[in-house]
Design a protein that fits this description.
The protein is an alpha+beta fold. It contains 14 helices and 40 strands. Helix 6 packs across helix 7 (162-170). It is globular and about 75 Å long. Belongs to the TolB family.
Amino acid sequence: MARLQVRRRGTTTLLVAVAAALAGCGDDEARTGASTTGAPVSSPAATSSTALAVAKPVVKKSPDSEAPATAPAHWLPPAAWVYNHWLPYDESRLYALLGITREQLWAQLRDDKRTLAQLAAEHGHPDPAKLAAELVAPRAAAVGPTRAAELRRRAVSTITQGHLAQHLFFHSLHQFAIPSAAPDIFGVTDATFRELRRQELSPLAIGRLQGRSPAAVEGQAIAVLHERVQSGVKGGAMSAEQGRLLLRRQLTQLPRWLDQARYNGPPTTHRGDLVQKPKDYASNPAISATGRFVAYEAYRQKLPLAVKLGEIAVLRADLRTGRTRLVSAIPGKGTGGPNPISAYNPGISGDGRRVAYESSTGNQNFAKRYGRIGTLLADTRSGRIRAVGTPIRGTADSQSTWGPEVASDGRRMIYQAVRGGRTVVIARTLPSGAQTTVVAGQKAGAATYRDPFEPTVSADGVRVAYTLATGTVADAAQARSSIRVRNLRTGRVEVASRADGRGGAALGGFSADPAISPDGRFVAFTSTAPELGVKAGSVGLFLRDLDRGRTRRIPTGAARPLDPAVARRGRTVAFTAVGKQAAQVMAWDANRGTARVVSAAGGTGTAPADGFSSDPSISADGRRIAFGSTATDLGAGEGDGARAVYVHDRRTGRTRRVSDPEVAYAGQKLPPAKPAPAPPAAPPPAQPDLPATPDAVDAPSTVFVTDNAFVDGEQRPTVLVSPGTLVTWRWRSRQSHSVQLRTGPKRFASKVRQDGSFKYRFQEAGTYELVCSLHAPGMKMKVVVGQS
């Protein structure tokens, strides 16, 4: 019997947006070559007898001696070299001088309160200033005495400040460069991009909703990373060797980062206090082909226990018995403190027995996931959990594996990795472990790129569909994204994103977001192709019959579709319909030719529920659809607005809540409930209301500095003035910013600041291109001074 594979790339839940946080650490790989699965673990069955690590006090304030008194634990110095990872010395020299490995450095810096200075003292270098001088020495003569002194000061900071060092060495893609270029790359403002990331939309999904192809997004992101490294090297902030190492890490991590939905940054704070009290929640469901089991993520938001256990766990609900079990393992005690390990992004076999998921170690202060991402496969019958994929040692390439999906028959699984600098999709036969490369991208670092994204496998493991993104880094207009399907039995690769007909024409626009039916015959995908009748500025949803060569459009109304899931023989397609203010889960019926709301108020009818619903997963027969939602009126018990996982039965019309995040705590004693503290003073809005035209006090030459944008009626303004005009920049932001000349007749720059104003009188005619030194190249503007 054909069974449905489950395709999970992460939740696309939309929530009410909150203001952007201070600089926090994002979704990035930490350890190169260090296993995330080698730490001792216990099976869920042995939870009650497992000795767990002793939780350390939760760090609420920054341990950085240079931080303001109210700075949160994740505070970073507001400086361009920090935000862009311009390490002032060669990383390889540090390892040589101390006689340590990168793994030893991670073990030390996993706790923000530990420093590189302590590790250096253990290895014969007790004086941070002397060690800094030794690290910078090979570059001192070339950069000159003034620059060398500045590099030594920065080096001392990396040695003495724990979180700063953790950021520079291990958070390669926590940077402002790509978000600051969000208007160009993703079609939204920097602030909106950050808000959507906090609501767990992947960068690719954000771009797709704005009509930006995966290929165009990837190409422009590559170009931004290149520019930042080149700027650091050219300005003497880091060496060419260190620049090459950093860029290699970033480019090989980039495909995973672009397709990763879950947000890995800190909670939003204002003056050191949480803006909102965290709640346990669940998301990212994967339903078995039989419709009996649902695997999902449970987020532990009780911080002391999250630090002890890990921030996220994988659970499996049995809809027949009503029981929920912990699938992912409980970590054993670590060295030097707790050993939080998170598990997430599950895929499930057709009978619910096997669950594959990603796993990553977290830091010891607030459990955020900075370790190498590994792929694990759990057998819920035997309790055995084993690692899938082996990291390639001795390279700067990403060591992570990600995106696991189990074929419904349980005899094959797929996942992604980096091999030889190339992003690849790998098919693994179970239980033998024999592996086949389904598709390999182009080696990172070239002038062109060609990478696979979003792979999904048929029920028998024979056909794999994926998005292929190709382009030239220097020319985003040439980027192309199409849907390919490879038959692992015959080796044949065919293009599924075609116009109607067996010989259907190749499509313009872009196609992405594939989902393959259990029988491997049908592929659903989203597209902007005009050949398929998609109007400019819109995105359509389509279903391709590979056997008959037919392409059919699925109606989505004014909403934009994301994350389709296909039932057997293409009879039902579930998808997320994203509107201007909300997102709902819909189900299209091939016989009726219409789509109906799944996430309906009361569980039935056509009125959408009051929350944000998304991320559908469908049983093989199309009867049951699992999804995530923040709704409180789904007819499944009143919710509290926290995300939860639901299952809708299309036959009975009933919707039931199936998630139980408390199971993730594995019987640990939960802290007693406390009265909610008084909320902190409301932070100013991320993008305050500003006059479209400056008032008389400010006219005619005032520019507002908001969070991550210069504003004069619009973002990225061009201000036209005559010689002798005094231009004023007024800060209206919560984050630190500066005004700095990039190109122009006369150099000038403001200090990095969070409030106040800066003035400059323009005397010489010409065009002045200005940036914020912390958020370049995207936070920019021009001043054009005409002739007198």
